[in-house]
Amino acid sequence: MFEEGGQMLDYSEAGKRGYLLEDFRLFHLKDSLAQKMDYHYHEFDKLILVLGGKVTYVVEGVTYFLQPWDILLVQHSLIHKPIIDPAKPYERVVVWLGRQWLESRSDPGVRLDQCFDTARERGFHLLRPEGDRRLQYMSGIRRLEEALVSTEFAAARLADTLCQQLLIAVNRDILRDGAVPEGQEACRVDPKMEEIIRYIAGHLDAPLSVDDLARQFFISRYYLMHRFKAVTGCTVHQYINQKRLLLAGELIRSGTPVMKAAEQAGFSEYSTFLRAFQSTFHMSPKAFRQSPAAD
Fold first, then answer.
1. How far apart (Å, rounded) are the C-alpha atoms in residues 253 and 259?
2. Rounded distance, CA 131 to CA 137, Å?
3. Helix or strand (DSSP H, E) at 45
4. DSSP helix/strand/coil, 91
5. From residue 115, how far is each of 46, 91, 150, 173, 194 by CA, in Å?
6. How far apart, in Å, do the first and last CA atoms of the chain sit?
7. What is the pTM of this model?
8. What is the DSSP string of 92-136?
9. What are φ and ψ of residue 178, in 5° steps?
């Protein structure tokens, strides 16, 4: 099974790929396919440990040039895509993490998904372990892989514990030092587009037309439209609608009444929201509220 399986959204170039029905899931993949991936997102969090090959990942407009042993943290709802060079076999371990499981395994003030929040706040989603840390991660991954296929006593419990240990290690390394060693090119950023993306995230309940954003950031409408599409893979309108729908979904699942969730997510007309929501999630807001969060 490929880690990026699934279908595209009907109305947007940014689609939801992959479904997680378990608490967490691990894939160890190696292939030489130049499989073209579109921009997409997940409702679960994802860790990618690169073991070999040449791959570039674009996460919310930031391009990461990954090396063996790099760990990429992709939080739920972040729009991303890999660009795979077929010249070398691409080997990676991918761990999908259900959000309900992460919450259930966390303690007050000690959240296992803190590393994803920290990465998002920094606008930098890469961890590059050095020296012995690489071997420790690989050892932990191998033990987790073995536990997941084992039929011995309490194998499932052991796998659960080992997955928690993996996340504890990632959190500690991210909190200790999330930076990449000097002299190593890790990513390419368009500062202006990154600034705009951050502004959009903090103002989803406000008017966010192309003209509004162009005036706010003192750039031409034409430049904004073309540069934003080149960096994110989406038009400005598609990106904003996508983020508003994801926010509305979060609010609905948290118990916010549907109409209020639509308003707080920036939809001025409920009928427009309803059509977009059903087109995107293929279900009504009520059914979405009752569906598993990890799907």
1. 13
2. 11
3. strand 45-52
4. strand
5. 11, 23, 29, 9, 20
6. 17
7. 0.79
8. EEEEEE-HHHHHHT-BTTB-TTHHHHHHHHHT--EE---THHHHH
9. -90, 5
Closest of 198, 222, 167 to residue 26, by C-alpha? 167
Helix (H, G, I), strand (E, B) or coil at 187: strand
Cα 164 versus chain centre, distance: 19
Decide: helix, strand or coil at residue 230.
helix
219 token code pair: 């750039």
pLDDT (0 to 100) of residue 11: 29
The token duo for 98 is 């259900």
pLDDT at site 2 = 31
Q: What are phi and psi of 112, to 5 degrees?
A: -70, -20
Alpha-carbon distances, residue 137 vs 94, 130, 169 (angstroms): 13, 10, 8
Q: Are 83 and 117 in contact (CB under 8 A)?
A: no
Token pair for 28: 């160890």
- CA 235 to CA 242: how far, in whole Å? 10
Give the Cβ contact number of residue 154 at 10 Å.
11
Residue 254, CB-side half-sphere exposure with 13 Å CA sphere: 10
- CA 282 to chain CA centroid, Å, is 21
Tokens of 271: 């009928």
238-293 per-position pLDDT tens digit: 889 988 998 998 899 889 999 999 999 999 899 999 999 988 888 899 888 887 65
DSSP state of 256: -
